[in-house]
């Protein structure tokens, strides 16, 4: 997926400025697609040049004007075409899994270091799961319309993924800790 597609979806959900898009990426879209503020602004400029988005200057009292973007007909057509394209399954590349396999060729000290790394990795995923659960409670107390239902479905997929990873990491830790007994 290109960042352009994620931006188009976000702007169709709600027009906004580059800053507002960046905040949405931090809060919700970032659950499955990350982008820096610089990337968002750079891509928005290109999308404007290509006629995919339309800017609107909005005056603000005591602050510089802001540009709010909405999706132009060309951008909607590009997105619809992309939505209808088949999606190729993603290749899984997982450095930690390779390290776990390689632990068979390391000594007990190396496996101890790997256990610490798996625990650090697990802490990161626990924090991500907690953020997702907080977001779910905040953003989806009652799901009503199609857009909310689909957004919630994506979030539930992220929650399920994080729970699966945490289950797997628990199994990895049990296995690693049991090797040198």
Can you describe this structure?
- The chain is built from seven helices and two strands; from the N terminus they run αααββαααα.
- The protein is 66% helix and 9% strand.
- The protein has a two-stranded antiparallel ribbon.
- α1 crosses α4 and α6 packs antiparallel against α7.
- The longest helix has 34 residues.
- By secondary structure, the protein is mainly alpha-helical.
- The chain has two domains: 81 residues, Arc Repressor Mutant, subunit A (Orthogonal Bundle), CATH 1.10.10.10; 85 residues.
- A hairpin with a 2-residue loop joins β1 and β2.
- The mean pLDDT is 90.
Helix-strand layout with pairing:
Layout: H1 3-13, H2 18-27, H3 37-49, E1 53-60, E2 63-71, H4 73-84, H5 95-102, H6 108-139, H7 146-179
Antiparallel strand pairs: 1-2
Helix pairs in contact: 1-4, 2-3, 6-7
Summary tags:
181 residues; mainly alpha; 2 domains; two-stranded antiparallel sheet; 66% helix
Tell me briefly what this model is:
By secondary structure, this protein is mainly α.
pLDDT < 50 stretches: none
Helix content: 55-70%
The global form is elongated
Mean pLDDT: 90
């Amino acid at each position: 997926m290109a960042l352009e597609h994620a931006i188009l979806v976000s702007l169709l959900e709600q027009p906004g400025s580059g800053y507002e898009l960046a905040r949405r990426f931090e809060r919700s879209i970032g659950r499955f697609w990350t982008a820096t503020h610089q990337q968002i602004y750079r891509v928005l400029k290109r999308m404007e040049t290509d006629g995919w988005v339309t800017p609107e200057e909005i005056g603000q009292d005591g602050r510089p004007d802001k540009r709010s973007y909405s999706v132009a007909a060309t951008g909607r057509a590009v997105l619809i075409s992309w939505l209808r394209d088949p999606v190729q399954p993603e290749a899984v590349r997982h450095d930690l899994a390779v390290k776990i396999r390689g632990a068979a060729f390391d000594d007990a000290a190396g496996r101890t270091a790997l256990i610490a790394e798996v625990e650090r990795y697990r802490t990161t995923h626990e924090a991500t799961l907690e953020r997702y659960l907080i977001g779910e409670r905040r953003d989806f107390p009652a799901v009503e319309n199609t857009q909310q239902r689909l957004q919630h479905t994506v979030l539930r997929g992220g929650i399920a993924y994080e729970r699966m990873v945490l289950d797997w990491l628990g199994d990895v830790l049990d296995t690693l800790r049991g090797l040198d007994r």
